[in-house]
Amino acid sequence: MTMKKNIFCKIFLPVVWLGSTCFLSVISFGQDSDFTVHMYDASSAGAEDGLIRIISHPRAGAGPFTYEWADQNGNRRSWTSNEINNLSPGKYCVTISDGCCDAKGCYCIMYPDMIQLNSIKWTDSPTEQRMIDITVCSDHGPLTYQWSCSNGYTSTAEDPDNIPGFGSYSVVVTDANGCTLEKTVDLTEEIISDGFFITDVFPNPFKDEINIVLQSGSEGMVNMELVSVFGRKVLAEKAMAIQGQQTVRINTRHVLMPDGLYLLQVENREGFKASVKILKQGNR
Q1: What are the average pLDDT values for consecutive 10-residue runs of the chain, which has 284 residues?
Q2: Which residues of 242-255 are buried (b: 16+ CB within 10 A; e: fewer)?
Q3: Buried-state track 128-163, b at ≥16 Cβ within 10 A, e below 16
């Protein structure tokens, strides 16, 4: 599991007063607050190994404290401890009470690589647009996007275009639960010339054959996988990548694949990954 460290957001939540005297004031993030929240992300999209632990500090009072938890759908759960585990990615809310008043907080369990960089289209042609293409692996839509860069560029598109030039482009993705993800895409001359990207996939939708246009800064073996929306690997193949641009073909005639959306993932020997969503139509 991956621990979310150094959470000092100082998010103060309102108190629901139930009596004349109250010692439980707020839940806030940080070592100087009443409670510290430790969160461990899930290891993957379908994993159930996330954890949330709430630690009370002396300034919160002597307690005892009770904990009531609800899941991302607002359903109350049977958890009554300050620590809950075996969590899948999503939003979890807690109400803490000292018998006098309540304090509430909500926390998001994520997993690595929820935001995946698919490709960068970079051109100096006046008739074509520079573009960043990403995939966000989240079942909690709709999603909103906010891109920004120190050069003043902003966009609310999932895949921003009209990229003005080199720089660090950051995106904040917010899902329907209010959980946020962040990723920064650094665009430098070296990355553009030496990077590893999927620049095109055709036909899309496909029936039984996929052509992948790869841009690679080095030679070497690449691993290619097709993964269903349920996280099931349906195909795995290898290919030799050359330096520069090439087209790699995958034949799916021998694979039982129902029509639907799939994630095509390609990884080179240096561990760089590229992915793109593709649609299968015309099932045999």
Answers
A1: 34 33 40 72 84 79 82 82 89 85 84 74 64 78 90 91 86 87 79 68 90 82 86 88 86 88 83 80 70
A2: eeeeeebebebeee
A3: eebbbbbbbbbebeeeebebebeeeeebeebebeeb
**Tokens 């899902």 found at:** 175
Say what the pLDDT of residue 52 is: 92
d(CA 236, CA 252): 10
Neighbours of 119 (CB within 10 A): 23
Sign of the torsion formed by the C-alpha atoms of 145, 170, 30 and 38: positive
Q: What is the amino acid identity at position 259?
A: D
Whole-angstrom distance, CA of residue 186 vs CA of residue 129: 18
* Distance separating alpha carbons of residues 68 and 70, to the nearest angstrom: 7
